[in-house]
Amino acid sequence: MPLNTSLDSELIHLRLARQDRNALFSKIAGELLAKGIVEESYPEALILREQDHPTAMQLETMGVAIPHVDIEHVREERLVVTCPEGIEFNQAEDPDLTMDVNVIFFLLLKEKDAHLEFLMKLISLFQKTNEMNALLNATSTEEVMRILATHLD
What pTM value is reported for the model? Predict the structure, then answer.
C-alpha cells in the first residue's frame, strides 16, 4: 500500500473517548461508507472478522490492534488510525483473553496479499517503542502522518 495515497487526515482520530469496540467500528465504518471508500458489506465484515480472528497485541508500553477485512469489502486503499483511551479487544495470541488497546490501525487493502507486506512494516514500527509512544501522544493529525510516513514507506 503506498502510504502517500492511503493516508487521509480526516481518517486519523486522536484522543477518542473510551467506548465499546463495536461502537468504534460503527463510527469508523460510517465515515468510510459516507466517503465511498468501502462497500455496504464492510461494517458487518469488520465485526465478524475481528470476532473470528482477533488482532490485538500487547507492545512494550501499549496495546495495538489491526482490524481488517477481505478485499471484496474495500473500494479504495486507506489506513485509518485511531488513538482511543483504551478499548477492549480480544487478544490475537489467546482469543479468550481481552486487553485494552490504545492505537488501532484499520487496514483497507485492495490486493489479496498486500496486507502481508504492510503488516510486516507495521510490526517493524511496533518494535520501536519511542515512535509508538510518539504516535500515541501525538497532538495533531499532521504529526501522526509524519511519523507513519517516516516509518511505513
Answer: 0.92
